[in-house]
Amino acid sequence: MSGYRRGVRLGIDVGKARVGVSRCDPDGMLAVPVETVARSEQSLTRIAELAVEHEPLEFVVGLPVNMRGDDTPSTTDAREFAAALQRLTGVPVRMMDERLSTVTAHAALRSSGRTQRKSRSIVDQIAAVVLLQHAIDTEKSTGNPAGSVVPMDEEPI
Question: What CATH number does the domain containing 129 carry?
């Protein structure tokens, strides 16, 4: 684990209706689901509460780009959410390409025998797990943190 920065991370999969949250252990062995937060004015507050509970080194927020790597309306939403989360908590945020994380999550749930309707409540958490696991595996294999840093532009609220 030469280049791995030890510490808990929280993975965030930002959606229009729900936000999936995952976390990993300090050694980055395994990402696990934490909770699905309904998307509302309270979303950031709830995730800030989870940050107090889990004391993350950083957040890893999924950056939803299309298959060509271009921005979509969801990309802007995720960037704004990530910046607001960083301002609120003071915890560093990294944005990571999340192409296929939701697709991978649906496939995993289907292969476990869950219907899409039954999976709706947890698919966002699983997408956050896929995203975070990819980030920690990338950092371990390359020695560099995955994704890009969201610049700290203001003091925490």
Answer: 3.30.420.140
Token digits for 75? 């990309």
pTM of the predicted protein model: 0.87
- Four-residue CA torsion sign, 64, 70, 72, 78: positive
What would the pLDDT profile of 55-102 be if each residue is shown by its tens digit?
A: 999 999 999 887 787 888 889 999 999 999 999 999 999 999 887 666
- Token representation of residue 126: 């699983």
Q: State how many domains the chain has.
A: 1
Closest CA to 44 of 84, 90, 94, 96: 84
Q: Is residue 151 part of a domain?
A: no
Q: Which domain does 96 fall in, by range?
A: 9-145
